[in-house]
Structure formats: C-alpha cells, structure tokens
Design a protein that fits this description.
mainly alpha; single chain; elongated; Rna Polymerase Sigma Factor, Chain: A; 6 helices
Amino acid sequence: MDSSDQNSCDDSDSALLRRYLGGDHGALASLCVRYAQPLNRIVSSYLDPLVARRVSESDLVQETWMVAVKKLKNKPETPEIALFPWLDCTLACYRRAPDASWS
C-alpha cells in the first residue's frame, strides 16, 4: 500500500481534520457522527430544563461545530489537536458566556 492509500484509510481525528481543511467535507461529517453522542451527553448534563424547552441539545452541538469549524479554518496547525477535549472546551464557553443558553 502506498502513502496515498494509507492517507485515504486513516480515520484518526487529525487525518480527518487535515482532509476537511483540504476540502473534503465528508471528513467533517465523519467527525460530527463520531462525536455526536459524547457531545450530546455533555450538553444534556449542563442544560437547564427550562432552557431545554427553547433550545435542543442538537442545536447546541451544531453551534459548537460551527464555532469549531470557524476556528479550524483560521488555524492551520489545529489538525494536531486532541479534538474531543477541544470541543468540550468550546462547549464550556457556552456554559460561561453571560448570554449563553446554559444553566
């Protein structure tokens, strides 16, 4: 197997991020699927029940991905990050923000 075959088979977070930044939107979709349940669990553990009537967990996870993608596009070195802790920190910003939809 040559190096191009290895790259196409590599589904590590870093490889998928590099592929996404190279224009492969399917790579981002793979990451979204990979982290959907863990991120939803984080959101559900912090989301106030009154807020949950107005905002769904999936909306907050989607917003987190939107923020993450914007940050990724501005920092070419980010493919080497530990993705899940970084996404968790992005969610933490919602929990701390004064206008956030968190409890």
